[in-house]
Structures are given as C-alpha cells and as structure tokens.
Amino acid sequence: MPISNLQLGLIVAGVLLVLGVLIYNAWQERRVRRRIESAFRPTDTIAPSRVEPTLKAMEDSPRPPPRRGPRTLRIPRSFRRWR
C-alpha cells in the first residue's frame, strides 16, 4: 500500500516536532547547568552577601514606647440600629 502525500507530510512534521523538542530540552539543560555552576562557583571575596536582621535599630530609635491604656470597642453606627 503506497503512502499518500498527507501521511508522508504528517510523518515528517512529527519527526521534526520531536527533534525540535529534543533540541530545545538540550538547550534548556545547558543553560540551567551554566547558571547552577556559576551560583556554586567559589568566590574570591568573603564579603557577606546578606546581613542578618537585628533589633539594635529599634533600641536606638528615638520613638517613644507605645501607650498602654484601656481598650474600647467602637461599634459602627450602622450596626447600632440593629440591636
């Protein structure tokens, strides 16, 4: 049974699609591998890239401490009429 032009075109398109996916996957793997290697490559400088947070800044703050007083619950007027 001979292969029609449609079948041949679909086979070629399928092969090209699979090859395209394989090439794209290889390209992505190579790109990610480079990023990972550069992230874990030892650096010559030992300067910290992050600084841990401390509470020293709040202790040195000129703000007064918060007031502690009686707390009252304020009910909006729209709720008062439903009592």
List the topology elements.
Blueprint (H helix, E strand, L loop, with lengths): L4 H35 L16 H4 L17 H4 L3
Q: Kindly provide the radius of gyration, computed on alpha-carbon positions and rounded to a whole number of angstroms.
A: 34 Å
* Proportion of helical residues: 40-55%
First-residue to last-residue Cα separation: 88 Å
Share of residues in strands: under 5%
H/E topology pattern: HHH
Largest sheet: none
Tally of helical runs: 3
Q: Low-confidence runs (pLDDT<50, min 5 residues)? A: none
- The overall average pLDDT, rounded, is 80
| Shape estimate | elongated
Structure summary, number of beta strands:
0
Helix-strand category: mainly alpha
Provide a descriptive summary of the structure in words:
With 83 residues, this protein is an all-alpha fold. The chain has a domain at 15-41. It is built from three helices and no strands. The protein has helices at 5-39, 56-59, 77-80. The longest helix is centred in the first third of the chain and has 35 residues, at 5-39. The protein starts with a helix and ends with a helix. The mean pLDDT is 80.
